[in-house]
Amino acid sequence: MPKPKIDKIARRDFFRTLMMVKRESLEELFKDLMSSAEIKDLSRRFLAAKLLREGKTYLEVREILGMGETTINKIHFKTRGSKVLPDLLD
């Protein structure tokens, strides 16, 4: 069983580390920490958010990415009010 509050500590440290990593080292950091499948999944979620922001329908995103509508819906609602994503996706 994990130690109490370990997820909170891990999350805090993860985001602090991301903020300190130089841009050119970021891809290497993710390759070191994540499997290729995890990077693919994260990349596809990011692309789905971008496609939705561009006005693509759920059906179009599903056809492009082969992603389920439930996942697309979650991405849509989680990113809809994002203050950061618009700047990253434009």
Keywords:
90 residues; mainly alpha; 2 domains; 6 helices; 0% strand
- Oligomer description: single chain
Rg, Å, rounded: 15 Å
Unreliable stretches: none
Q: What's the end-to-end separation, in Å?
A: 42 Å
Can you write the helix and strand succession as a string?
HHHHHH
- Strand-pairing-aware structural class: mainly alpha
Q: Work out the count of structural domains.
A: 2
What portion of the residues fall into strands of 2 or more residues?
under 5%
Give an overview of the whole structure.
With 90 residues, this protein is mostly helical. The protein has six helices and no strands. It has helices at 6-20, 26-33, 36-53, 58-65, 69-79, 85-89. The radius of gyration is 15 Å and the shape is globular. The mean pLDDT is 90.
How does the SSE layout of this entry go?
Layout: H1 6-20, H2 26-33, H3 36-53, H4 58-65, H5 69-79, H6 85-89
Briefly say what this structure is.
With 90 residues, the protein is an all-alpha fold.
